[in-house]
C-alpha cells in the first residue's frame, strides 16, 4: 500500500453553520496556521458564506468547497445551485451524496451519479460520501452496501474521471454522535471500498483518495490517518473550531 500515490486531504464540512462574520474570523485565524500544511486542506462552507470565504481565504493554503450542487446546468429549479455557479464563485470541491442529504433531502444513488457526472464535466472535484446506518452494520450489511453505493455512484464514469473523485466513508452512526468508528473498523471499510474501485478501475484505485468521516476530532485523527488506506478526513463539528481543525491537519501532515 503506497499512500504517496494519492494526496492526503483534510476537508471540513461546516454543514448549516456560521454567518459571514464567523467566516471572516475563521479564515483570518486559520491562514497563518496552515502555511506549512503537507496535506490538501478544503473547507466546505454553506452557499451563503462562499463569497465571504473566497475573499477571506485569499492566499491561504486551502481550497473552497460547497456541500451540494444540482446536476442540471441551469433552468427552472428553484432553490438549487449549479456547478457553473459554484465555479463562478471560486469553489473547487463539492460534497455529493452526504448521508444527511440522502436522509432528509431525497438524494438517491441515481441523483448522486448524475451530480458526480455534472461536477466532473464542470471541473469541480467531487467528494462522494458513502456509509452504512447502525441497523445495516448490526445486520452485517456494511460491506455489501458500500459496494452497491460505490458501483451505482460510478456508473458510466471512466477511469480518467474516477481518479478525480475523492471518496469519504462516513458511517451514519458515527456522524455527530461522538461515537467514532475504531481505526480498524474504518480501515476495513475503506480497504473494501478501494477493493471495489479496483474491481472497476484496476490500478487506478491506488490513486483515489479515500477519507474517513464521523466524529473525527483532534484526539482521534492521528490514529485514523495512520492507517494504510485512510487518506485523510471529512470533518464536521471539529472543523468549526480553528484549533481543532489545525490539529487534525497537522496529524495528516505528519503522515507525509
Ligand atoms: O458528516 C460529517 C462530515 O461530513 C461528520 O460530522 P461530524 O464530524 O460532526 O461527526
From TrEMBL:
Alphabetized Pfam families for the sequence: TIM
CDD domains in the cross-refs: TIM (cd00311)
MF GO annotations: triose-phosphate isomerase activity
InterPro entries: Aldolase_TIM, TIM_sf, TrioseP_Isoase_bac/euk, Triosephosphate_isomerase, Triosephosphate_isomerase_AS
Keywords linked to the UniProt accession: Cytoplasm, Gluconeogenesis, Glycolysis, Isomerase
E.C. code: 5.3.1.1
Cellular component terms per the entry's GO annotation: cytosol
Subcellular location: Cytoplasm
Residues the record marks as active site: 98, 170
Binding site for substrate: 13-15, 176, 215, 236-237
Superkingdom of source: Bacteria
Pathway(s) this gene product operates in, as recorded in its UniProt entry: Carbohydrate biosynthesis; gluconeogenesis; Carbohydrate degradation; glycolysis; D-glyceraldehyde 3-phosphate from glycerone phosphate: step 1/1
GO terms, biological process: gluconeogenesis; glyceraldehyde-3-phosphate biosynthetic process; glycerol catabolic process; glycolytic process
Top-level enzyme category: isomerase
Reactions that this protein is recorded to catalyse: D-glyceraldehyde 3-phosphate = dihydroxyacetone phosphate
Cross-referenced PROSITE patterns: TIM_1 (PS00171), TIM_2 (PS51440)
Broad class of the protein's primary localization: cytoplasm
Role this protein plays: Involved in the gluconeogenesis. Catalyzes stereospecifically the conversion of dihydroxyacetone phosphate (DHAP) to D-glyceraldehyde-3-phosphate (G3P).
Subunit structure: Homodimer.
Record-stated family: Belongs to the triosephosphate isomerase family.
Protein name, entry field: Triosephosphate isomerase
Gene designation: tpiA
Amino acid at each position: 500500500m503506497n499512500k504517496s500515490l494519492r494526496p492526503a486531504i483534510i476537508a471540513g464540512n461546516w454543514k448549516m453553520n456560521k454567518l459571514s462574520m464567523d467566516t471572516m474570523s475563521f479564515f483570518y485565524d486559520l491562514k497563518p496556521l496552515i502555511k506549512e500544511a503537507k496535506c490538501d486542506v478544503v473547507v466546505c462552507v454553506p452557499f451563503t458564506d462562499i463569497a465571504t470565504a473566497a475573499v477571506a481565504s485569499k492566499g491561504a493554503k486551502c481550497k473552497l468547497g460547497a456541500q451540494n450542487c444540482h446536476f442540471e446546468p441551469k433552468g427552472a429549479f428553484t432553490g438549487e445551485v449549479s456547478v457553473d455557479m459554484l465555479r463562478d464563485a471560486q469553489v473547487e470541491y463539492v460534497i455529493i451524496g452526504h448521508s444527511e442529504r440522502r436522509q432528509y433531502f431525497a438524494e438517491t444513488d441515481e441523483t448522486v451519479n448524475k451530480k458526480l457526472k455534472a461536477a466532473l464535466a464542470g471541473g469541480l472535484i467531487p467528494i462522494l460520501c458513502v456509509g452504512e446506518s447502525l441497523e445495516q452494520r448490526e445486520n452485517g450489511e456494511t460491506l455489501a452496501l458500500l459496494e452497491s453505493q460505490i458501483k451505482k455512484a460510478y456508473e458510466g464514469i471512466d477511469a480518467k474521471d474516477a481518479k478525480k473523485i475523492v471518496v469519504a466513508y462516513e458511517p451514519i452512526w458515527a456522524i455527530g454522535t461522538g461515537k467514532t468508528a475504531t481505526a480498524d473498523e474504518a480501515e476495513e471499510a475503506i480497504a473494501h471500498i478501494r477493493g471495489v474501485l479496483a474491481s472497476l478501475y484496476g490500478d487506478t484505485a491506488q490513486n483515489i483518495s479515500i477519507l474517513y468521516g464521523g466524529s473525527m476530532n483532534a484526539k482521534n485523527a492521528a490514529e485514523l490517518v495512520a492507517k494504510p488506506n485512510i487518506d485523510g478526513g471529512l470533518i464536521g463539528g471539529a472543523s468549526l473550531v480553528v484549533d481543532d481543525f489545525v490539529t487534525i491537519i497537522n496529524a495528516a501532515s505528519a503522515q507525509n
